[in-house]
Specification:
Elements (H helix, E strand, L loop, with lengths): L4 H25 L3 H10 L4 E2 L22 H15 L4 E3 L10 H10 L3 E2 L2 E2 L23 H21 L3 E5 L3 E2 L7 H17 L6 E5 L9 E2 L4 H11 L3 E6 L9 H10 L3 E6 L16 H17 L9 E4 L8 H20 L3 H9 L3 H13 L3 H11 L5 H7 L2 H9 L9
Parallel strand pairs: 1-2, 2-3, 4-5, 5-7, 7-9, 9-10, 10-11
Antiparallel strand pairs: 6-8
Helix pairs in contact: 1-13, 2-10, 2-13, 3-10, 5-6, 8-9, 9-10, 11-12
The chain binds beta-L-rhamnopyranose and manganese (II) ion (2 copies).
């Protein structure tokens, strides 16, 4: 299903007067409103190919129908999202869930939808049909060289797919670790992992980045070999200038101060990218901003501050990706909500009066510092996000238009009720 310009225009037409009124009000509230709108226009968030179907838990999976049955249909779904918000102009592929067979055709299809290929993701946390050796006891850390070799080769294979599609980065997330004390020699596991990563790193094209994603627990519950930002940092530091840490918001121990982690990684020049989602307990993969919107804002506050301190380009110098997936919502509506929440947090962070905040910090004026941040967070900037969309030719209310056009029903008619997308 493809949206037409007329459908979007008609939708916007009906909402325009109300939008203009809100926008005018917001402009009076926010000094740099115009600049924020411009920055939002350049900001794109990649959609994970594995989140286009309903996510499952180990207890069950409830397909909502019309799920994409192939890589092409996944690209079409992301194209739909991008048409609705003009902020999801990239797709991040997970191999082997999404192996491209005809690179040229895949590239052309993506280009038709205005999409680029973001980071490619390797998968050594599952055994695939016909796979020779098992990852039951890890992959890059494995005690057996042959298993490590197989996992290294897989990552190199993923890089090759990425090169063909025009990706610029590889994300490595390992489930490697142990479930019981004594199972693993921590130092040897670290060393094996580092050696394996060196080989993968050596296969990266010059212009590429390697993102090493950490996670505190799950599926291993005693130790994880890339368990936190310190461990990831210690690997990427040794690997070289193309290696960076990737922060997935759901991968920390409870109550971790993620914004501080982000600030320090950025300062060290080793923050590579993000997997946005939200959580209450662990790696819940809920919609970004659904549970802790203030935390999301505080993270963006550090991002904007740290990116500017290093004169980095907000839109292009870090990898911005969503990694969310769950059981109860329409996955496309859910992704629209995530993108909206991310844009809003970014807009709020851009509205923070930096100089005033710094002055408050220098004077140990704790109250003013808090007032500044909370004022930014509590000021409604949704009209700025909507205006950025309007100017880009997207919908003023993406979820509203998705619903009023009965997109899901169309997809079910096209693809069937019982389709299951590859992925989580
Ligand atoms: C992991 C991690 C990875 C993702 C897999 C599917 O928890 O977040 O980024 O690729 O899930
Ligand atoms: Mn992730
Ligand atoms: Mn995760």
């Amino acid at each position: 299903m493809q949206l037409t310009k007329q459908q979007i225009d008609a939708h916007n037409e009906a909402l325009l007067r109300q939008h203009e009124a809100k926008l005018q009000f917001t402009r009076q509230e926010v000094a740099n409103a115009e600049e924020i709108i411009q920055q939002l226009g350049a900001f794109q968030i990649a959609i994970p190919s594995w989140a286009l179907g309903t996510g499952g838990t180990r207890f069950g999976r409830f397909s909502g129908g019309g799920e994409p049955r192939s890589l092409d249909e996944k690209i079409e779904d992301v194209g739909l999202l991008h048409a609705l918000n003009q902020s999801s102009g990239a797709i991040s592929l997970h191999i082997p869930w999404d192996i491209p067979h005809d690179y040229r055709a895949t590239r052309i299809l993506a280009a038709q939808h205005g999409l680029a290929f973001d980071a490619v993701n390797s998968n050594t946390f599952q055994d695939q049909n016909g796979q020779e050796l098992s990852y039951k006891f890890g992959s890059l850390q494995h005690v057996a060289k042959a298993v490590r070799r197989q996992a290294i080769d897989h990552n190199i294979e993923v890089i090759k797919h990425g090169i063909e599609l025009g990706s610029q980065s590889l994300t490595v997330w390992l489930s490697d670790g142990s479930c019981f004390p004594g199972q693993l020699n921590f130092r040897r596991a670290y060393q094996n992992t580092l050696d394996s990563l060196h080989e993968i790193y050596a296969a990266l094209p010059d212009s590429w980045k390697l993102f090493l994603e950490y996670k505190a627990f799950e599926p291993n519950f005693y130790s994880t070999t890339v368990g936190d930002w310190g461990m990831s940092y210690s690997y990427v530091q040794k690997l070289g200038p193309k290696a960076y840490t990737l922060v997935d918001l759901g991968h920390h121990l409870p109550n971790a101060n993620i914004e501080q982690i982000v600030a320090l990684l950025l300062m060290e020049g080793k923050l590579g990218g993000f997997h946005f989602n939200d959580s209450k307990y662990g790696d819940d993969d809920l919609t970004a901003g659904a549970i802790k919107p203030y935390q999301l804002f505080l993270i963006f506050n550090e991002l904007v501050d740290g990116l500017d301190a290093r004169a980095m380009n907000h839109a292009t110098d870090l990898g911005w990706m969503i990694d969310a997936s769950h059981n109860v919502k329409d996955p496309l509506e859910d992704l629209l909500q995530s993108v909206e929440a991310i844009m809003l947090a970014y807009a709020q962070a851009l509205s923070v009066p930096r100089r005033a905040l710094e002055e408050a910090q220098q004077n140990n004026d704790v109250v003013t510092a808090q007032e500044i941040l909370q004022n930014a967070f509590r000021t409604d900037l949704r009209a700025l996000v909507a205006e950025a969309r309007l100017r880009a030719g997207a919908a003023l209310n993406p979820v509203g238009l998705f619903r009023s056009l009965n997109v899901r029903e169309h997809l079910i008619n096209e693809r069937g009720l019982k389709t299951v997308a590859t992925g989580l």
